[in-house]
Amino acid sequence: MTLRTKDFDYDLPEELIASRPLDDRDASRMMVVHRATGTIEHRMFRDVTDYLRPDDLLVLNDTKVIPARVYSDDGGIELLCLDRPSPLEWRCLVRPGKKMKPGRTVTVGGITGTVAMVYENGDRLLRWDAPVDLDQHGHLALPHYMKREDAPSDRERYQTVFAREEGAIAAPTAGLHFTPEILHNLDHAFLTLHVGVGTFRPVSVEVVAEHIMHSERYRVSADTARRVNAAGRVVAVGTTVTRVLEWLGQQAPDGLRLGETEHTGETDIFIHPPYDFRVVGALLTNFHLPQSTLLMLVSAFADRDLILHAYREAVRERYRFFSYGDCMLLV
């Protein structure tokens, strides 16, 4: 059966899109989906320990979101910093791009940047006269569906409590529900995948298998790899963790989930039905946009019809959707 992008569509009332976080991180609702039976339960995230086994290992993404959206001093140019090859160089998305040809300049905080080159995909490489302080001049690139600019409170809430490795443009949102107290009582390990701008890009092809996935940088320590291999069940916290673990699992030696060394690199793995999961045994994730690669990944982990049924149930039960929304545990 050839799966098409429209096969991953569902109807979502706009009022169910969460544009702001709850007062308490762990106050989100949690839909529990039992893959083997199709049973659905409605719980709270604080109940997550009820579904974890003694030999489970939670794996979380410790990437840290940077305030990557910057506006020129005159307000005419918007820059989204995708990468910083050096303190004086940025690879950026630029709007409007027509104004920013090679040699053109832009000023942020009194510091001048010059367009050094234009990449094939339209990104710009800017070279600055001095380092630009993103913490001072940058804004969080909140997802477009929130329909608002970032607020001071987002600097804390659009960030996991365990974030430590700077480099993401978007948050690994399944991790936003955890508090230090909940995490303290769970066996867990970290990896790093810097969530890039591709997370905002829609699938534009009709046939799912023809979609070309964006690439993102990752790092998995040797200690995390060893602990993943020793775990009875690996519980991935989020689709980013799932992608890294499954990418490495495809390359692992026989008998191991992962090679027991440090792993660094980039992955453009695109997980969609059908897919045989080698590493991940349970998945905690938020509710994702219709026709998105994230929804396709979740539909590969469980039956697509079951997932779409669960999403319809979530709409009926008035769950909150997307980055600041509620979560789903697939066991």
Question: Which descriptors apply to this entry?
Answer:
331 residues, alpha/beta, QueA-like, Thrombin, subunit H, 2 domains, 9-stranded mixed beta sheet, 7-stranded antiparallel beta sheet, 7 helices, 17% helix, globular
Classify the helix fraction into a percent range: 10-25%
Supply the CATH architecture of the largest domain: 3-Layer(aba) Sandwich
- What is the H level of CATH, i.e. the homologous superfamily of the largest domain? QueA-like
CATH level-1 class of the largest domain: Alpha Beta
Largest beta sheet: what is the strand line-up? 2-1-18-17-15-3-13-14-16
Number of helices: 7
How much strand? 25-35%
Order of helices and strands: EEEEEEEEEEHEHEHEEHEHEEHHE
Outline the low-pLDDT stretches: none
What is the CA–CA distance across the termini?
Answer: 26 Å
The whole-number mean of residue pLDDT values reads 95
- What structural class do the secondary elements suggest? alpha/beta
**Shape type:** globular
C-alpha Rg (nearest Å) = 20 Å
The overall strand count is 18
Summarize this structure briefly.
With 331 residues, the chain is α/β, with parallel strands linked by helices.
Describe the structure.
The chain is α/β, with parallel strands linked by helices. The protein folds into 2 domains: 5-65 and 147-330, QueA-like (3-Layer(aba) Sandwich), CATH 3.40.1780.10; 69-139, QueA-like (Thrombin, subunit H), CATH 2.40.10. Helices cover 17% and strands 27% of the residues. It has 7 helices and 18 strands. The strands form 3 sheets. A 9-stranded mixed beta sheet has the order 2-1-18-17-15-3-13-14-16. A 7-stranded antiparallel beta sheet has the order 8-9-10-7-6-5-11. The chain has a two-stranded parallel sheet with strand order 4-12. The chain is globular and about 60 Å long. It starts with 28 loop residues before the first strand and ends with a strand.
